[in-house]
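User: I'm putting together a teaching handout on how sequence relates to shape, and I'd like one worked example. Could you take Gliding motility protein GldC from Hymenobacter bucti, show the sequence you're using, and then write out its predicted structure as tokens right after it?

Assistant: Happy to. First the sequence, then the structure tokens directly below it.
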Amino acid sequence: MKKSEIRFSIALDDQKVPEAISWQATDAGQDIHFAKAINISIWDRNSDGTMKIDLWTKDMPTDAMKYFVVDTIGSMAETIVTATSDQKMAAKMRALCQELTDYLEEQGQDDRPNL
């Protein structure tokens, strides 16, 4: 059986606020990659519930964080189609993404930041 590992490293300041987030994956080579935010959801098969880890660096811009959340919902719409073929649920999630994007544009945050 082939195994793959993903490792996250979080550098914290004195108040335990993330200053830097880096990650490495065995399938992505030896390079270290950097991120300003991560959102990890794990389905615990023993408790039939979700464990979540949300972290972002203190220099993550607010507008970038909002787009990160919208992009995450959009990617979850693709996941639901792939995992369950539920097109209706995915369409509702995509509609929410469009509604949130419109809201951000109305708020003057129409330039998607570089995440």
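A couple of points you could highlight for students: The chain has two helices and five strands. The mean pLDDT is 93.
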